[in-house]
Structures are given as structure tokens and as C-alpha cells.
């Protein structure tokens, strides 16, 4: 039985099971090299599950500060939480600020001690870490799953190859995947076990309600939840567009500072990211506003009101949601690079644009995204212009919904979206 009509049966699985995450290798390296590892990410991306199952941390003592009794202990006598052991996981660590000084004392006294502190509130957690554990901690971000993680495949190497100027050989890729059903379902770890569109919609409805009614109240004082929800929906409708906080505030009937604060809270809780504009000395007239992208394209689709595959196929927002899907997989692949690169968009005030620019050291990669089955030369005009203005750019890639790798220029290649997703 399919999760959403049109998704292959192998993408649906009625029984929940742990699917290894690509970040496990970096987690193992981090806990070996650093006394404190901070693991953050949106709610329900699988942080606790990862720490329970990853080989590097599976046998560590684990505490969750969602447990009221454990929280009281962390506030009164945090040292008791790790008495008799040297390896400890503390989930939702930002709930007990006093904990961080105790962790600092513990790792300073015994350099063999190891802690993993996890949580969903980026600002609260990293602020406490920055104040108390500077120089002792390293941070990792866990994002929603990539297609390859859901399928149990290895991580893609295409991003690294393209940044090195190595273009893939032409040819047809195996097992192409229609992106639209996946855009409706999403990439949170629990979703592959849901076997009907109704179950998926119910899950996302509960996700948004829990975020508004519990997580947001823990993160900040927001009295007008209806206004906040309206800003979420308006930001979803602007997925892949330049962020105009004044416009969002006007449409939501809130002040610009309030809209700014709400967008910051969405970013703080890892539901939203703002991709900044790329600028260089040779391109002075570049739009300075960031673009808005959601952590999971299905969350954006749900907030937009897209509940059926038939409706999404004809929707004007389908292209933007596909761009959001590509952005998510670029972020996942980029996180695996050592060191990671930086993701930008290139949007001159006049002329052609490029959806994404990856900058890693002195290497640049330009990426254009098109929800189309066929790669066309007309779709790479922005890539050609970017390569002309930035001769050091290693390659340009057109990421599209087809199934063939096609060369469209000396340094330009069209690749199916699955090539960056698995």
C-alpha cells in the first residue's frame, strides 16, 4: 500500500524501523575528538533515536530533561546524572541552564569524560554552550532524512565531485523518482511508516499543533498564536522567494518587528532557513535579501494547503516546493563535507539568476533547479552568466526531475534530482 499515490512501494513501510543516518560517521568522529558534542535540529528529526542507535553512543547513559524528575535533578544536583559513568547523553539540555556549568566542571576535571547535549531550540542551547562550554564543544545539526537514508543507501558524492570540477558521465540513472509525492509526504523519520495520505496529513497537523502549543511556548513568549500561525503560512507561500519581512508583516496584520521576530523563532527552531545572497567584487548589483526555505518541503506544502497529489501537480507553487526539496538535500550533502561549504543564492537585480551557489574554500558550484522532465539549453542561461562572471567556478549543474545526465556545456551538466539525494 502506497504512502502517497505515485510513490514506489519500496518507499513505503508499514512497520517503523531505524534507518541509519549519514551523520553517524561524523558523530563518531566528534565524540572521539571532543569532550562535548551538541546535537541540534528540528523536532521529530530523530535526534534521540540517532543517539540511541548509533554505534558511537548506543551504550551511553541517557537522560531526557522532558522527564520532570530528571529535570529537577539537573537543576538541583546535575552531577548525580553522570555519577559512575564517563559517557552521558542529555536530551533537551537547554531546559536546565545550570547543567552547562556542571558539565564544564566535569570535563575539566576528567578529560576522558564525554557528553552529548541535544535539543531542538538552537538559540537557547547554543547560547548556553557559548557561555559555559566555549572551546570544549562542537556542534552538529541533524536535518530531516534524505531520500537515500530512507532507502538505506549510501551518501551521494556528486556535490563533492562537482566542487572539484569533475562532471559525471552522461547516461540514464537507475530508478528515477517522482518528487511530488515525496514533497507531500515529507522526510521526517516517522513518515515512511505511514501508509495513507490521510495518516500523513494527520501527522503534519499534529506536528504543527505541537510546535505551536508546546515547543514555541518553551522557546519564547508568543501570546498571539493565531498571528504566529498566519506568519508561518505566509512564509510557506514565499518558499524559494526573497524574504520581505515588511510584506509578510503587512499581509499577516502584524508589525514588521513582530514578523522579523517570528521568522527568527522559526529559524531558531530549525523549521525555516534563510539562504543568503551571494555577492562578489565583480557583481555589485546583487539582491541582498535572503531566500526562505523550509526544513521539510512537506511542511511548507501543508502550510500552503496542498493536500493532494492532483492539486499539487497543477499548482503554481510546485516549482518552489521542488526547489525546497533540492535545497534540503543540498544542505544534507553539504553537512557531510569536511569542512562544509556555504549555501547562497545569486539574484542580480536585473538579468538571469541562479538558484543556489555552493562555496567551499575557493571552490564555487552554481546550481539551477527546474521541475521538468527534460533538460533544455534555455534553462542554463543563468548558469552560463554566472560562469562568465566567475571564471573560477568549477561547474554549473541543472538539477531537474528527469532521469538522464546530460552535458549542456563545457562546464555545465544536467543531473536528475536523485543524484544529489542518494
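-> sequence recovered:
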Amino acid at each position: 500500500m502506497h504512502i502517497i499515490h505515485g510513490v514506489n512501494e519500496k518507499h513505503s513501510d508499514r512497520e517503523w524501523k531505524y534507518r541509519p543516518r549519514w551523520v553517524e560517521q561524523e558523530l563518531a568522529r566528534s565524540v572521539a575528538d571532543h569532550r562535548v558534542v551538541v546535537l541540534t535540529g528540528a523536532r521529530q528529526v530523530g535526534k534521540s533515536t540517532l543517539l540511541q542507535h548509533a554505534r558511537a553512543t548506543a551504550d551511553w547513559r541517557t537522560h531526557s530533561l522532558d522527564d520532570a524528575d530528571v529535570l529537577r535533578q539537573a537543576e538541583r544536583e546535575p552531577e548525580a546524572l553522570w555519577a559512575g559513568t564517563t559517557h552521558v547523553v542529555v536530551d533537551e539540555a537547554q531546559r536546565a541552564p545550570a547543567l552547562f556549568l556542571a558539565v564544564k566542571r566535569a570535563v575539566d576535571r576528567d578529560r576522558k569524560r564525554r557528553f552529548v547535549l541535544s535539543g531542538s531550540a538552537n538559540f537557547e542551547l547554543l547560547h548556553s554552550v557559548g557561555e559555559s562550554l566555549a572551546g570544549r564543544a562542537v556542534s552538529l545539526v541533524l536535518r530531516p532524512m534524505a531520500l537515500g537514508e530512507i532507502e538505506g543507501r549510501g551518501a551521494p558524492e556528486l556535490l563533492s565531485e562537482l566542487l572539484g570540477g569533475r562532471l559525471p558521465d552522461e547516461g540514464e540513472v537507475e530508478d528515477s523518482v517522482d518528487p511530488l509525492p515525496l514533497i507531500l509526504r515529507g522526510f521526517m523519520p516517522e513518515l515512511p511508516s505511514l501508509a495513507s495520505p490521510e495518516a500523513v496529513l494527520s501527522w503534519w497537523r499534529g506536528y504543527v499543533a505541537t510546535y505551536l502549543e508546546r515547543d514555541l511556548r518553551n522557546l519564547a513568549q508568543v501570546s498571539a498564536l493565531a498571528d504566529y500561525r498566519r506568519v508561518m503560512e505566509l512564509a510557506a507561500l514565499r518558499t524559494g522567494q526573497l524574504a520581505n519581512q515588511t510584506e509578510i508583516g503587512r499581509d499577516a496584520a502584524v508589525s514588521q518587528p513582530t514578523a522579523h521576530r517570528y521568522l527568527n523563532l522559526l529559524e531558531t527552531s530549525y523549521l525555516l532557513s534563510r539562504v543568503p545572497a551571494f555577492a562578489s567584487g565583480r557583481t555589485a548589483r546583487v539582491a541582498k535579501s535572503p531566500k526562505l526555505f523550509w526544513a521539510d518541503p512537506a511542511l511548507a506544502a501543508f502550510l500552503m494547503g496542498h493536500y493532494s497529489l492532483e492539486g499539487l501537480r497543477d499548482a503554481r507553487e510546485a516549482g518552489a516546493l521542488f526547489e525546497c526539496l533540492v535545497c534540503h538535500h543540498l544542505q544534507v550533502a553539504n553537512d557531510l563535507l569536511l569542512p562544509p561549504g556555504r549555501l547562497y543564492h545569486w539574484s542580480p537585480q536585473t538579468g538571469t539568476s541562479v538558484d543556489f551557489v555552493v562555496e567551499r574554500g575557493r571552490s564555487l558550484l552554481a546550481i539551477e533547479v527546474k521541475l521538468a522532465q527534460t533538460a533544455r539549453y534555455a534553462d542554463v542561461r543563468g548558469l552560463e552568466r554566472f560562469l562568465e562572471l566567475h571564471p573560477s567556478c568549477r561547474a554549473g549543474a541543472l538539477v531537474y526531475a528527469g532521469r538522464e545526465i546530460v552535458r549542456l556545456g563545457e562546464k555545465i551538466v544536467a543531473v536528475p534530482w536523485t543524484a544529489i539525494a542518494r
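The chain has two domains: 24-141, 148-420.
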